User: Fold these one by one.
Assistant:
Number 1:
Amino acid sequence: MMRALVTGGSGSIGAAVCRTLASAGHHVFVHTHSQPDKAAAIVTAIAEAGGSAEAVQFDVADGDATSLVLQRLLEQGPIQILVNNAGRNADAPLAGMSRAQWSGVIDVILNGFFHVTQPLLLPMIRTRWGRIVNVASVAALAGNRGQANYAAAKAGLIGAGKALALEVASRGITVNSIAPGIIATSLTDGVFDAERIKELVPMQRAGTPEDVAQLVGFLASDNASYISGQVLSVNGAML
């Protein structure tokens, strides 16, 4: 049984990813920062379905706090599957964006990637097998009005993943990014109505968290051992 960590595991996409990885036989650490009740409920649901999981709580933007928790987890053995899914929005036109809005999003998405990924690398390398999947966004590929901070952070996540893929390719570790489009989650409810989705998405529907999770599950499997350094879109043919 391999051990997997899903940051932002208490959110809609993160929960679907946790369930998918658990169903594949992995022990899943369901990460949350501010929703421990939701993380606990996901752990319970996974256990009831016959899987193995536990909740972990820390702020990925806080490097020291993250390191403390990860070192505790690593005492039990390496984490060989990592899904960097934690995210944050603070939308505003750049002309009116505050420094806090800019840095807050960068801290969670991009600095959070470093804080979580870097401590896990050497233990993962020693096993000669690993899967790292970064959940980016269509905004990183096409931009989006009012989301210069979010687009920059997600684009940086893609770039970091490509560089890391080169660094660990000879060690049996793959690093890929997924760029979801409009996915039906609690964060998008009320943002896009049905008509607007039909205008934006050639498939004329929003995706589901499971659409994203199934791709994560594939990339985290042995079947994807020769796929690395790539960006795969899940967006209903938007791009």
Number 2:
Amino acid sequence: MHHIIVIGMNHKTAPVELRERLGADADNPRKALAWMRNLEVIREGFFLSTCNRVEALVVTDEIDAARGSVVSLMARLGRVRTDDLMPCLYVFEQMNAVRHIFKVASSLDSMVVGEPQILGQIKDAYGLATREKTSGVILNRLMHRAFHVAKRVRSETEICGSAVSISYAAVELARKIFHLLEGKKVLLLGAGEMAELAARHLLSHGVSSLMVANRTFERAVEVAGRFQATPVSFDEIGSILTHVDIVITSTASPNYVITRDEVKHCLRKRRNRPLFFIDIAVPRDVEPRVNDLGNVYLYDIDDLKGVVALNLAQRKEEAVKAGRIVEQEVGKFEKWLKTLAVVPTIVSLREKAESIIQAEYAKSRSALEPLSAAQHEAVETLIRSIVDKVLNDPIVFLKERSARPTVNTYLDLTKRLFQLNGVASEGEEKAGRGK
């Protein structure tokens, strides 16, 4: 019987120092697969390495030997003692392993639930496994079902639909105010990391231009270079407010950089066009009374945190729906996996039928010689149709009982009835080979 095992560590079980050691060498996944390929106890193998997780998935007939081999491999890759590694590892087997892979692919096991990057990383890891020829019947099916589960979760739930980072929450608010961001102009005031990230998100959503202001003009030039933006001086802020649509502030100033009077002064020239401030600075850069002005929208760091907290709560609710999808798909995969037990006997049954057709056709060749090519084809089609119909009932019978505890009794009876013992071993070898 084939067993599926997942052994790994993630952000919940292992410190970043240990995860870094296993992920330090970008070539480690290929090395791991090459090592798996040469091990007799591992029929199929997959290796995933990201900043937040390192996992090996293997298909084996020898659980204990395979488990020990994978742990030894990880210790070797990270250059750590096995005893130091073991407390940080989790191990899942059979349907628990399948459930885990489905949850990881659907981003239900990520540091930020619903983040989309992990699915692409899994696809890349699977692509490497196929190129390194460590994937087989079970792993191929499992990965494609994982991709299907992730697609279902994305399309049937809203788990990916809400911003859960400060920077992206700012963009989400901007989109609610302006509906479309195409053609909007942004002023980046200061050089904080979150402000820069928010600017990147805004640019990716179609804003047309970006200006960067900083107390030190050289720093403004440096940051502007990252975005192909225009550097401006602090003295120009008052006039620039007349033209921009979104202002992101992140300075280290102890006082307000933008005041209510300064904003009020520019509103007449703006002709009722909305002005959106995203103040990510602590202390705040924008005077709170700015929010009292018409067509002016001000959000500070606490407002954005509130949006993130609400969205995280919504994602948790959607994760419950996603969990139901995962359980449905685990059940389907388990049913398919159990059918593998009857595949060798079905293959042997078809092989025996084919050998009988060929033998009887050979005996009748002389009697069939007067027939035309079309008539020969019609006779062969008739024979195969009859054989397929005769075999259909026993094949369906075996598939329907593949999940029952008594399946081995049915398999043994089928082999005896059709005298498949000699052929079954050959069919089993063909159907069950993972490499």
Number 3:
Amino acid sequence: MATIHASCETCGDVELTTAYVRVRVCINDNRGEYSFRCPECEMTVVKAAEPRTIDLLVASGVAMDTWSLPAELDETKIGRPISHDDLLEFHNKLHDSSSWNEALAHLLEG
């Protein structure tokens, strides 16, 4: 197993084996990151990584996961953006069950 040198924000430079490092790559835009649990403080550390770094880690035996951006990002947005007042009104309706039920019934009728 290869030894990987990384840095923890708390502990500084640490040495890891490939078994303690994971790579994640977005299949839509090739953004990559690697993560590991610091062997000293046991905090999970996540760092962005360039494609060259990802390639070196994977070639060293680090496991790679892929993920994709949510499809909702490609949907056409219609209507005005939600405002702080909209969120406050929604919050208040959730806490007033009669108001919430009436609003929901009105939407279903409509």
Number 4:
Amino acid sequence: MKKAFLSILLLSFSYVTVAQDVATITFDSLVVDYGTINKGDDGVRQFKFTNTGTADLEITQVRSSCGCTIPKKPSGAIAPGASDVIEVKYDTKRIGPIRKTITVASNASNAMVALKIKGEVQEEPDEEE
């Protein structure tokens, strides 16, 4: 009888622990498609997200797969229900395909999220006169 009581008590404690407030990060999209852009065009894009959890969301780190992509994270906590953006700047002086990954680390239940940027940078077409 004692073992059954202890088991029920432990299960109850586990449920209470799991039911605590947690942050959850939900992105509008995990991919930003630049499409085809010209060399030197504006390389800044944004990933919009919302804290769909019940606790404050803290973005602890945002890093890129290469130095040609510079991500910028929000500076403060994001309250439950609030939205913000992670800004990404790609160096559009590099001609060719864009295929990069941005990794977002946070205190959310889904602590690591991989974002992708894609597209193509082309030489600016010559103007015909």
